[in-house]
Amino acid sequence: MKHGRKLTGILTATLVFLLASPLADAASGRPQAFMTTGSRTSQPIGHYRFCQRHGSECLSHSVDAHPSRLTKSRWNTLVRVNAKVNHEIRPVTDEELYGQEEYWTYPQTAGDCEDYVLLKQYMLERRGFDSSDLLITVVRKPNGEGHAVLTVRTGDGDYVLDNLANTVKRWDRTHYTYLKRQADGDSGQWVKIDTGHEMLVGSVK
């Protein structure tokens, strides 16, 4: 009986671990794991100006139809980069820093939500993630404010890195309404997510 209870405990613990793991989402075959994108839409003005200053960051590129699986190593990298940037960058509005709205740039010590995204995108590219899998995404918070997060495409679903949370979550496990994101084949183009519409994304709260 003792051996039976021990085996049952091990199996239960294993099942709990698998259900808690991000890899379990893919195994379930749930269609929500991946965003559904539609037609091309307007590029946020802040990103347009960023591309004018950093042309090499906004080029078209090949797309891997089958993004890399979310291995334990890659998952740990996402978590570390997200937490590192969130810890090191202080949230400040563009008006306070630059005296203007929607000034997207790589932050040094402080920045707006999209600045966090740009830095995480930059860091992950240099850690082996493909640029077509690192997409700036515009969302709406429950209170109606605009916000920006980084969507990471993986073979196991789309995951979100957010300056408002150190926890990396699958996109459909967040409380946001998703509006649009960069096209995976062209960093300077944007596509709709469902029926999203244009709005400013300067909020840092």
Automatic annotation (TrEMBL):
<dbReference type="Pfam" id="PF06035">
    <property type="entry name" value="Peptidase_C93"/>
</dbReference>
<dbReference type="InterPro" id="IPR010319">
    <property type="entry name" value="Transglutaminase-like_Cys_pept"/>
</dbReference>
<protein>
    <submittedName>
        <fullName>Transglutaminase</fullName>
    </submittedName>
</protein>
<feature type="signal peptide">
    <location>
        <begin position="1"/>
        <end position="26"/>
    </location>
</feature>
<keyword id="KW-0732">Signal</keyword>
